[in-house]
Structures are given as structure tokens and as C-alpha cells.
Amino acid sequence: MKICKNCVLPETFPNIRFNEDGICNYCLEFKSKKNWQEEKQKYLNRFKTIVKEHKGKQPIDCLVAYSGGKDSTYTLYILKEQFNLRLLALTFDNGFISPKALKNMKKVTEVLDIDHIIIKPRFELLKKIFVASAKKTLYSKKALERASSICTSCIAFVKSLSLKTAIEKHIPFVAFGWSPGQAPLLSSVLKTNPLLIKSTQKVIEDALRKIVKDEIKPYFLESHHFKKPELFPYLTHPLAFLEYNEEAILEKIKQFGWERPDDTDPNSTNCLLNAFANKLHKEQFHFHPYALEIAGLVRTGIMSREEGLKRLNQPENLEIIKWVKKRLGL
Ligand SMILES: [Zn+2]
Questions:
Q1: Looking at residue 267, what is its pLDDT?
Q2: Ligand 1 centroid, distance to 214 Cα (angstroms)
Q3: Based on the domain organization, do 297 and 194 belong to the same domain?
Q4: How far is the CA of 17 from the centre of ligand 1 (A)?
Q5: Are residues 260 and 139 in the same domain?
Q6: Can you give the residue range of the structural domain that contains 11?
Q7: How large a percentage of the chain has pLDDT more than 90?
Q8: Both 91 and 225 in a single domain?
Q9: What is the pLDDT of residues 117-170, one digit of tens each?
Q10: Which of 29, 65, 128, 188 could, after both became Cys, cross-link 240 (CB 3.0–4.6 A)?
Q11: Is 317 found in the same domain as 246?
Q12: How many folded domains does the chain comprise?
């Protein structure tokens, strides 16, 4: 299989093209952009300015979508210790959080002294959604360039529950721990509004409604939320504009008692469903759902190409996949 000689994107990735040197169009586009560090600084400054404007005006400054993985753990630390924000950590329990990740969350939120809410929807509901996500092509191909179908359903819950909670609790910021490869710098500081959220929510809600109808309602924004544009928060993923070094992150969060779970796949430090979702995605679309993220990390020099290829080629843990399938009744 042909793979970009600069990053790790394979020829099976949607809309990829290679030049005569074997470099992909994503890499060529990135090269033509302005100085990366300068761009990052711009977003960091923007974030600092907005934080200054809103900090301390509400009982909680920022809600952090907390998966218990290394990146969101580090995001909690940064926002609490470096930006001095009062935080609320919110975890969406999809029924597949690694027990070690749950322990990590407990330790970290206690050490950093942060309020923590865990929302765990009924498993029967989640099961229906995950099974449908596994079987059908629920989402557009474009949506599945960045994540598997199961992951996309799960992230939809995380996003809408975070947003909904922030609006209800008058919290001006919602932060995510996306790595610089997972989400673009361009959207790293973004003011939301009803129109924007309505249109993004619709795509997912329509898909999920086909499976579970009105049962989806409690987890998404409703018409009364959309009537309060002044309460719509800023979304941010600070790891896009801060220094990102995986080793340094792991070193830091170990200080809070965080331990790497040994039951998850190499691309996740919290979710047991991920290995199954990845395997399915590779069978259905012939590229790894983490390819774009890892390519981004390699392109920006955060990860070596060798390490990136290693992660994408590592076989899934079959024991875990077997357990997941059983739990989903597949
Ligand atoms: Zn490339």
C-alpha cells in the first residue's frame, strides 16, 4: 500500500493525492501555510484575552469534557494550574470506560481538587446506538474521516452533554482535550451560537433518532436552550495552541497518580470500545480511523513517522474485542 512519505496517510484515505515525490496533498497544503508557531501564539493570545474577560463572573469558569485519558487529564491540569480557572469536569460514561481510567479520574480530580460529574445513560440505550453504529453507515463518509462511526456517536453525546450542562449552569467555557492532530488550530477558540449548534446537532440527532427516536432527547439541547443565545459558551481545545509533548504530558500527570491502563488499545487511554470500533472502521473503509490524527501529529513534528506507523499497524487486542462484542450482543 502506498503511504505518504512525509506523514502516515495511506492511498486508501478519502480524496488523497500524491505528488511525484510521494508526498500527500495534506502535507503539501500544510507546508504552504504561514509559520505554525506564530499561528499558535495568535490563538493562545486570543484565549488569554477572552479568559480575562469572563473569569470569575460565574461560579464555574470552565467545564472540561473529561474522558480520563491522558490528554483531557493534562487539559484539566493546565486550565486549573496555569490559567487559574474554576473547573467542573464532566465525564460521559459510555459503559466501556476502562476500570483503570475510572480510578485515574477519581485520583486526578481529587488531587487537583475539581468537582466531577459522571453521566452514564442507560446501557440498553447506548447498546442500541453502538450496535446500529457498527452495522450501518449512519454518518456521511466525510464525518468518518476523523473517527469511526461508533466514536462519532459517542463524541456526539460528549459534546452535547457538555454544552447543555454549560448552558444550564451558566459556564462561559467548555474545554476538550483534543490532541493537536485530532482537532484543527482554526477551531481551538470558538464562540458558539444557537444557529451553529443547531445545525451541527441536527446531523447527529437525525441519525440517532432513526435508531432510538425520542429516547435521545434528554442528552441533546432542546428548544429552550436555543432561546438563550447569551448563555452559549466558548469552545476550546487548548492543546492545539500549547506545547504538546506526549512524554512530558505522561510525566506530568503521573504526579497526580494517573497510570496508563493496560487494557485499552494503543490509541486510547480510557475506552475499551475503541479497539472494536477501530477494527470495524478498517474493515469498512480500509484506513485506520486514527490515521488523520496521527498524520497531523507526525506532520507537525510532535510524533515521529516511525512511531505513527507503529501505532497504526499495531493489531487490536482480540480478547477485549471479544468482550465488547459479547457486551453488545453481537
Ligand atoms: Zn502526508
A1: 73
A2: 42
A3: yes
A4: 9
A5: yes
A6: 1-30
A7: 86
A8: yes
A9: 999 999 999 999 999 999 867 888 888 998 999 999 999 999 999 999 999 999
A10: 188
A11: yes
A12: 2
Cell 497504526 -> residue: 312
Question: Tens of pLDDT along 189-201?
Answer: 999 999 999 999 9
Here the CATH number for the domain that contains residue 295 is 3.40.50.620
pLDDT at 34: 63
Q: Say yes or no: 72 and 4 in one domain.
A: no
Q: Is residue 48 located within the same domain as residue 24?
A: no
Q: How far is the CA of 150 from the centre of ligand 1 (A)?
A: 26
Residues 11 and 119 in one domain: no
Give the cell for residue 191. 464562540
CA 298 to centroid of ligand 1, rounded, Å: 9
Ligand 1 mean position to 290 CA, how many Å?
14
Please give the single-letter amino acid code of residue 26.
Y
If DSSP states are collapsed to H, E and C, what string results for the chain? CCECCCCCCECCCCCCCECCCCCEHHHHHHHCCCCHHHHHHHHHHHHHHHHHHHCCCCCCCEEEECCCCHHHHHHHHHHHHHCCCCEEEEEECCCCECHHHHHHHHHHHHHCCCEEEEECCCHHHHHHHHHHHHHCCCCCCCHHHCCCHHHHHHHHHHHHHHHHHHHHCCCCEEECCCCCCCCCHHHCEEECCHHHHHHHHHHHHHHHHHHHHHHHHHHCCCHHHHCCHHHCCEEECHHHCCCCCHHHHHHHHHCCCCCCCCCCCCCCCCECCHHHHHHHHHHHHCCCCCHHHHHHHHHCCCCCHHHHHHHHHCCCCHHHHHHHHHHHCC
